[in-house]
Amino acid sequence: MSDHALRRTTPQAGPTTTDERESPTAVRLEDVTHEYGSSGGRGRSSEDRTVTALRDVTLDVAAGETVGLEGPSGSGKSTILHAVSGLLVPTAGRIQLLDTADLTSLSDRERTRLRRHHVGIVFQRFHLLPSLSARANVALPLVQAGINRSTRRQRAESLLEQVGLGDRIDHSPGELSGGERQRVAIARALVTDPDVIVADEPTGELDTATGADVLDLLTDIGRDRTVLVASHDDSTLAVANRVVTLRDGRVVDDGR
């Protein structure tokens, strides 16, 4: 989607060599296991009934790489995205995001701060606030980050222009199509200029043609950011540099 190629909103370093681009690791999971239904993360009780969503997952994602996660429902795709973004703390294992210490050792506040500044999230069902305009939805993460109103409006409007919604800035989600709502969600994910984007079934609620437009946007995003995208859809996974296959919470093929 060259007419609306997405650009970072803050200055970036100069060009790097191929070796420099390939060497840094943006995301690293080491022996990550997660059980749902336990009594609370690492303090779980053996008496609780649990469902193991991840089993000893080890995975490296290089800076600037787009990695697809594929597998049947219940294979652990969404759980990986939630763990990488700090929305959940796995039962066991380590997660390193960018240059942080083990993400699982951080407090809730520290994980929230890290996510707010470095991770953008695109959900399948958009998760937009129905009472807010497209501009206000996109600007919301900047409110939470303490950015002044003028800068929030300018950045939100610029991103909505870039995703092709310059004429829909003041519309509420209820006045937008599914594809337009997902574009708003993508703009919101980008508004803090994050280093990492996680996208969970980003075309799952869209028809084929609209989904193709959203995939164009994801391709643009992947040009200068690290992207993890989970999907059942082959056309969505085609935007990835490599595809990691999961079965029953385990990585059975890391795509290398």
Automatic annotation (TrEMBL):
Compositionally skewed regions (Basic and acidic residues) per UniProt: 18-34
Keywords assigned: ATP-binding, Nucleotide-binding, Transport
Keyword ATP-binding: yes
Pfam families for this protein: ABC_tran
Region (Disordered): 1-50
Gene Ontology MF annotations: ATP binding; ATP hydrolysis activity; transmembrane transporter activity
Keyword Nucleotide-binding: yes
Name this polypeptide is given: ABC transporter ATP-binding protein
